[in-house]
Amino acid sequence: MKRTVVGMLALTAMAAAMGSAFAQETAKVAPAMTAAEKEQAKKIYFERCAGCHGVLRKGATGKNLEPHWSKKDKDGNVTEGGTLKLGQQRLEKIIGYGTDGGMVNFDDILTKEEIGLMAKYIQNTPDVPPEYSFKDTMDSWKVIVPVDQRPKKQMNNFNLKNMFSVTLRDTGEVALIDGDTKEIRSIVKTGYAVHISRLSKSGRYVYVIGRDGRLSLIDLWMEKPAVVAELKIGFDARSVDTSKFKGYDDKYAIAGSYWPPQYVIMDGDTLKPLKVVSTRGMTVDGEYHPEPRVASIVSSEIKPEWVVNIKETGQILLVDYSDIKNLKTTTIESAKFLHDGGWDASKRYFLVAANASNKIAAVDTKTGKLAALVDTAKIPHPGRGANFVHPKFGPVWATGHLGADVVTLISTPSDNPKYAKYKEYNWKVVQEMKHVPGNLFVKTHPKSKHFWADAPQNPDKDLAESVAVWDMADLSKPKAILNVAKDSGLPPTKAVKRAVHPEYSADGKEVWISLWGGKTDQSAIVVYDDATLKVKKVITDPKMITPTGKFNVYNTQHDIY
Ligand code: DHE
Known about the structure:
Number of helices: 9
Distance between the termini: 65 Å
Bound molecules: heme D
């Protein structure tokens, strides 16, 4: 017995030294790593892999990456194995070149050595990161400008309604860009790989969440808008929203954490933490999950409630914030791997992608029940989706897909008698508009006749740099394809400049598209005239590094999409 263990250790050491995949696969023992290698790999894993595969590597949008995991068919035969079974060479190939299953290639992001390191790392048992208590949250809280020292009225002359909060992903900043003049009014330091911005009910405060869990509160009334409070809500986060029910204007905020799996409720104008709630528990299949991450959060306008979508469990929580000490939560079963979503036109139903289940779940926030679970094409990714009145099927909500070449239109109910005749279509997929895979965001506006969709994750450079535009009055007309990279007039680069996230101006007349280049490339925002589809303005600046999401104050405040 002793000899076997010694033998295996010797084999592992030899395998690590020689980088021999064969030896590792035979030994089925994780490759040895030095402490420094582990630290480096841990950082890369957090920055590049955890979002899709989870910190504990149990899988969500991405596959399970545990060393000893296996998938069996109904007869008990193993059909898929964990990372140890896949082994070093196969893992290096998958990480480098990606897969048909949706894994992107990392050979243009990571070096050959880093890819080798990551292949080794994921054959080792996952590290369990520390927890983060209410006290930790409280200790991280900083009020930079107390409420009584803030302006009593707007101190600048910007048209705040048409201000855009723009994510500068790789610098951990947001740029506040004046939608009327297209000038950058302020660049504000926020969390690492900053993700999204949301608005308070009044439109005065912008809440920005970084992937490192740092939540920043920006006061738009200041002469130069700046951060007035900060809170670290966890180690890894993606979502934030505010209280939007009448009487709770700017009163509370809520932010969701990926790790630890929990959400934090805080005061809206100071970010003082009030409550931390864990989301660990059972999946819709009845299995315990140790890492059910908080995905999208949205605020209801018809009840004092947030819709909190829990990714791994597939449970949708309606969190009633009218009594935070005695918190009431309705738990609605839907489908696993909830991600992003948005309201239907009536703002009664919230539609959320259960992306790795290829479904859209619709919650009726009036009755507090699941309204529908709609099967769709592969990996729906709506962003917040887009609402319009289809010429044949009435009110529809649209989602694009990361994994399929269509935009799906789902019929949504309406109380308006003029749409009563479309009732028979409700919650059915009424049309799939031909697009290309790799779409992330779709968008339209109640005042627009156009429907926009990007494709930044498409492997084809031209497609990733372009957007498609449909005429909603006649969807059979060929869609316009706008090559945003070419339209920007920026010099061509070998690296892809991804055209991502269409966002309308407050009046619905312009569409802003980010051109997301590499960290050292010049990026831009290209502004199109929505009526003519002609370029109106290209916003570039050396400080405009890796722009991605753009959040128009008025549209975000009122959930217009
Ligand atoms: Fe996002 C929304 C999670 C990668 C840009 N993204 C969301 C939401 C979630 C999420 C849960 C919904 C928030 C809400 O409404 O409360 N995003 C994740 C990930 O887990 C993922 C896949 C991987 C990761 O490691 O983070 C990921 N997201 C990205 C990007 O790489 C994008 C394209 C560029 C970037 O800036 O990071 C990106 N995500 C966005 C944007 C939104 C978003 C712009 C908001 C859309 C909107 O219109 O509201």
